[in-house]
Structure formats: structure tokens, C-alpha cells
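If you are new to this repository, start here. Below is one unmodified record pulled from the training split, so you can see the exact layout before writing a loader.
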Amino acid sequence: MDASQSATRTSLRTPKAAAVAGIIYSVLLVVIFWLFRSSIPADPLETGAWLASHAKSVTLALNLVPFAGVAFLWFVGVLRDRLGTKEDRFFATVFFGSALLFLAMLFAAAATIAAIILAFVRDPAEMVNSATFHFGRALAYNLVNVYAIKMAGVFMASMSVVAFHTAIIPRWISYLGIALALFVLLGSYYFSWSVLVFPLWALLVSIWILFDNLSPASPHLTDRP
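And here is the target side for that same chain:
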């Protein structure tokens, strides 16, 4: 490798504090879910009365979704950077694919709710309790509470298995991730608050990686090519 290639690789090295992105993602997603839960009834068959009283708080949550998505992509990049040459192709495909699917369905659900609000602003009387509202509401509900949360569980499980075998994070966090992934995959239908499991797990992982990266004795700062 010549000097110019070495300099380029050095300049593109992930910052030590990059794990802050995972913390930002976790906090934003918790805030988003809290705004949704406090504004929109949990029942997907509700009539839409919240459109008249809580549309502003829901709109705020929707505006935060893109920022959470960008932070989540950075968080995924931090995890892949930490894996480095240890990344297994099979688990990397599952890990990366589930991350993109989770993000795509989260964005799709947000876009559906945003469309409902726009239609309500155009014609409030027509939108509330209409067939169009019920279709969009049910679509967004299923995207988040059935499909996106399952992809989050797959992401947690695959990442925890890789982390267990590569020791990029402590074993106890890997065990916890696998247990929480099974809970999300099997129990999310029965516990509506299970959507918070994923961002809280990501917060734990990000905090540990951040402190480990900032530690001068961290072995992960010297084993990258």
C-alpha cells in the first residue's frame, strides 16, 4: 500500500465518538414512540378523533423520524466498523438486511400517518372515521407493530450472535440481546410497549461502545486495518 492510500484510509477512519449516533437514534425513537402513544389510541380501529386535538404532536414525531433514521444508519455503520475483518458474510447479510427493512417499514408507516394528517387538513369532516382513514391507520399499525418490530428482533438476534463470537461487546450484552430479540419476536403481539425494547438495547450498546472507544486501552482501536 502506497503513502496516498494509507493517508486516505487514515483520514476515513471512524471517529471515536461515532457511537453517539446510536445514543441519538435511541433517544429520538423513544421520544417518537412516546409522542405517538400519548397522542394516538393503541386500538388500530379507533375513529381518528385525535386528528383534531393531537395532530401537532404527531406531526412533530413524524418530523423526527428522518433524523432518527439517519442516526440509525450511522449506528449500523459503527457496528460494522467495529466488526472490521471479523464480519461474517452470512450474519452480515441478515444483520444489514434486517436493519434496512426495519428502517424502510418505519419510514413507510410514518409516511402513511403523514398522508392521513394531510388529508385531514384538506377535509376534516370527510377524513375522520372514513374508510380511507381506517385503511391508512391499520396499515401504519401493522407496519410498525408487526413487521418493523420483527425486523428489529432479527437485527438484535443476528448482531448479538456475531458479537458473541467476535467479542466486540461484552458477552452479557450479547446474551441480553438474544433474550430481548426472542421476546420481541414472540411477544410483541401481546405487549404494545415492546417497541421500546429495540431502542433501549441500542442505547445500551452505544453507551458501552462509546466509553470503550474513548478508553486509551481499548484493543479495538488498534486491530483495524
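Two things worth knowing about this chain: Residues 3-11, 221-225 have pLDDT under 50 and may be disordered. The two ends are 11 Å apart (CA to CA).
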